[in-house]
């Protein structure tokens, strides 16, 4: 069960909710951003299952330059076993950088929606295939 | 000696007590302010702003430039001041006034000018209050073969002719802000032809100027990447204190946008060295006592993304106190968070109080401090006095962010009033 904004907006209350979610037999996945301190990310790692969802840009639509690989390495250095990177992957090279940094997976949203909206379902499926082929390079 | 210059800058964000609220696009606008940063800031600077890592390697060329211009700066003990006060406190200060433009500002100007030059642009623009940042940009851009235009807050432009001349010596074009060179400036002049100007307004003009020319805009404070570039001060100071087997109990610096305070104190905060960190500002501005912790624009024109910070409001026009470096409505987001969480404490002093502290410091240590830095000295004097009364032994370390040899007109005026 994905919680994209809970930790961002309610850092105090987040962990109480996580306990309740786990008690119901669900696996809570929590979104973290680079603007979060290491101590908090390390705490999230212990409860975010089966992976940690790492966002790499402050907003999805704006191509601010970031070193995606360095951001992934930072959370891997905190002991993250499974990291899925998303929220702001801008192009194929960003995806490769995420994997080079040690990410286990990627999350793609805007690219599918834009492809589907502009060119239809087949175009969205082509995005899926392209992403898959990039992951298969590694 | 050169080995004391750190190999990496330090970013405090991974060590903050809670998440840093990120920059935000103003709601309801068609264009993105965050996107605008891509057009005006050197790409590497922006990458440093958004790629949050605790340590960021300083390029060899920038490290060499730091050495060329006098880093590491000295860490000195103010023994004569201690003796004059009869305090048991030990007072150490990092002397950034030893850099050629007379302040710490060169630490952030050099990397930004280096990264701008690497992109092949012709020039850079910026704003300046007291002229310290403008002088640093003028020198750094000349060093890397770039043109520079500096928008200088009008009250400072008129009061501080020597620093204006210094910028011009380095080849910068210096314009008073509000100016008639930008649409923001023209509209500010239309609504108030006698405007003293403000740092936030000059920022907006510099951004507009860079956009029109395809230049880069260099940021003097407030953005956390600038605070990171300034961390060389504190990292050197940490190593220098370790060399003499000392640790500070109290760490002090003055605050305009936050870059010198953060540059000096964050490495201590990150290493948990010291138990008290004090940011000092002006009681004429009242940023700490009256400011709100909220999202606001760092520039008056509202070009830049909104930042969550302690702010007096972007339209606040500060009174024309001499300490131009403190005449700013906002405060860097990381420092705002640390103040809001009470990890960093604050003090505010007025011009008369800081003048007395400056005179005491000059008469004991021989250094005339910049009026901004004299705010830090005033706090040091207060703590040293308290240590004397309580018969406590305490180590105080502060950042003497600049000398005041180009600010003697201020001291002349204060001596005339207070003699």
Write the layout of secondary structure elements.
The complex is a heterodimer of chains A (138) and B (419).
Chain A: E1 2-3, H1 6-9, H2 14-23, E2 29-32, H3 38-47, E3 52-55, H4 68-76, E4 83-86, H5 92-100, E5 105-106, H6 110-119, H7 121-136
Parallel strand pairs in A: 1-2, 2-3, 3-4, 4-5
Helix pairs in contact in A: 4-5, 6-7
Chain B: E1 8-10, H1 33-40, H2 43-50, E2 55-57, H3 60-68, E3 75-77, H4 79-85, E4 90-95, H5 106-118, E5 123-128, H6 132-143, E6 147-153, H7 154-159, H8 161-169, E7 173-177, H9 183-191, H10 199-213, E8 216-217, H11 224-229, H12 232-243, E9 250-254, H13 259-270, E10 276-282, H14 287-290, E11 292-296, E12 307-311, H15 333-340, E13 344-349, H16 351-365, H17 371-389, E14 395-400, H18 408-418
Parallel strand pairs in B: 4-14, 5-6, 5-8, 6-7, 9-10, 9-14, 10-13
Antiparallel strand pairs in B: 1-2, 3-4, 11-12
Question: Would you kindly provide a brief summary of this structure?
Answer:
The complex is a heterodimer of chains A (138) and B (419). With 138 residues, chain A is an alpha/beta fold. Chain A has seven helices and five strands; from the N terminus they run E-H-H-E-H-E-H-E-H-E-H-H.
Kindly state the percentage of residues in helix of chain B. Answer: 40-55%
The gyration radius over C-alpha positions of chain B equals: 20 Å
What is the tally of helical segments of chain B?
18
The major β-sheet of chain B equals: 6 strands, mixed
Strand content of chain B: 15-25%
Globally, the shape of chain A reads globular
Give the averaged pLDDT of chain B, no decimals: 95
Strand content of chain A: 5-15%
Uncertain stretches of chain A: none
CATH class (first level) name of the largest domain in chain A = Alpha Beta
CATH architecture of the largest domain in chain A: Alpha-Beta Barrel
